[in-house]
Give the backbone structure.
Amino acid sequence: MASQRVWASPKAVDAIIHLRNQVGNFVLRHVGNKEGEPEVRLTHSPVSRDDDVCIGTVGGVLFLIDRTHDVELGYPDFHVDVTPTTLDDDEAGVRAQYHLVSRAVA
């Protein structure tokens, strides 16, 4: 990782630490469309993919983006925050009152 290109609000860091305590180790992956949608939900998974690029850490968790998508967006920095919502993912056994979002910053 060459440089830290991702920052987070204190609430986002707290949420990530809480989520790590619930589900164990995972990575955060910026997920977006080819048009560069500025605000998207982050997903979590235990492993990275071959085409992922790590652009920093947030709350001790790797933050990844698809290499092609990173190029399409022009290698932006990202700001991570939380928005109020209810997340019930029965498959992963996750219950939360927020979800993480990332916004590309030019």
In short: DSSP finds two helices and seven strands in the chain.
